[in-house]
Give the backbone structure.
Amino acid sequence: MPGVRRVNRGPSAAAENRAALIAAAREVFASDGYEAPLTSITRVARVGQGSLYRHFPDRISLALAVFEDGVRELEALAAEPGATLDAMLALMTEQMIASTAFVDMVSVSPADPRILRLGDHVAGLLDGLLAEARRAGRIRADLTAGDLMLAVGMVAGILSKKPAADRREAAELAWKLLRGGIGA
Amino acid sequence: MPGVRRVNRGPSAAAENRAALIAAAREVFASDGYEAPLTSITRVARVGQGSLYRHFPDRISLALAVFEDGVRELEALAAEPGATLDAMLALMTEQMIASTAFVDMVSVSPADPRILRLGDHVAGLLDGLLAEARRAGRIRADLTAGDLMLAVGMVAGILSKKPAADRREAAELAWKLLRGGIGA
DNA sequence: CAATAACCGGACGTAACTGTCCGGTTATTG
DNA sequence: CAATAACCGGACAGTTACGTCCGGTTATTG
């Protein structure tokens, strides 16, 4: 009993297969983590291994496709007229609560040029809101963009180690500590 | 050419083999990370696979043996009369700069009872110094032991993602942010 | 309605680790 | 100085994932 044998739907299925792979990867990355076997993604997408590797030569290509939507959300927020640093950090935090795959990808392949570029891009979005936040007096005046990225990294590090159910609470506590400081 | 063929030194080598495995594991965990192949540890220790699994049935047993020394350092510091919370955090940070294997073990196997016990033990050492630090006014009065553990976890998360060369600088920055807070 | 080109699925070869098993070596005991 | 018990090393079997390859299916074209 060979289980459900997938049918070859021919060349016209190319775009659908690609979309199914991205959707499946988003799901599997979120539930089983960024390092989940690629085979399990083809199973969920109901697509052969060949199609996976044809559309996405490696894990990073697939992951980048998965994250495109999230990055677009961040860009859209940054482009809004009244955008604040707080709102941007909140959105990033929400995304990390939903899935830590992005963060895990960065820590697994920190040197990949595509990831470096994307990281710089995201850092730029934060940086663009930094001056505003300083002006408004909502963050320390001496805080640099690098400080801010490290702070985000600290929250990300905590979230990527917690089960999804505990992440919101942990994120709130982490930001509370970071905002107020632990010193007297 | 079968390379250097190890010699079977018989039962009298048991203790030496055990010690060699611990030393090799400390080295390999520090340089290749906590998830390094156990085989590479037997190579460095110049010991057969059989001896590894005889002495340490699994990775965690071996790792716990490796970390015993570090834990004793922490205990010794906590037992000193003039011990401060700052000194304890500094020592933990130094240990994490030298190797993030402990932290990585915790994040790989958070549910293992031996690790839970050890984590509680370490948390206890911090907790014991909390009252003193509060009294001395060096930390916020409303800071709980849980807050403190999360703060340590945040620093640990950063360090475990950085190459050894960058860790000291990152740790200093992370503690600076945590101490002072990023808010205005 | 062939012939062809594009694409599909999954079997398969390869590689990396884990953990076991056993023939062989060494110390001990009487 | 045997006989034996304890322990050693590494070969090996089992598992899991990756990435390729190819026979087969579908749409297109003339």
